[in-house]
Amino acid sequence: MRRFASLDELTGAVGQQLxxxxxxxxDQARVARFADATDDxxxxxxxxxxxxxxxxxxxxxxxxxxxxLLPALVGGLYRVDGVRMAVNYxxxxxxxxxxxxxxxxxxxxxxIASAEPVDSGAQLVLAVTxxxxxxxxxxxxxxxxxxxxxx
Length: 151
Hints:
This protein is α+β, with helices and mostly antiparallel strands. The chain is built from six helices and eight strands; from the N terminus they run E-H-E-E-H-H-H-H-H-E-E-E-E-E.
């Protein structure tokens, strides 16, 4: 984990790599809970027998499940001292180049794309890449935008 002593130090770290972080296993129970939470019950996510004969050889996680895990995956990559609150401000770009097979593990790394002072804090843009322990293409690439407020 990279620790920044202040928001000023963070804004001076553009271009630096963060991570990769710890591996996080995607299990079928999590995929099923996400399907219930989002009313997205496609067979490719839930029907293990049908999915075994499908294009990926088994069930896969929803792309938006992977995306929803970014705060957890990225949260362990860095800390900024003196920040009282951080909020998700949005996304500039998201792609899912490869599926996440249920039973595999994923982890994130990021590059600080920009960090600029705003209001009483900073706006941070991270170029995040999520990889699978199965190898191959990344399973998610995204530009996340966060607002960090000094405390």
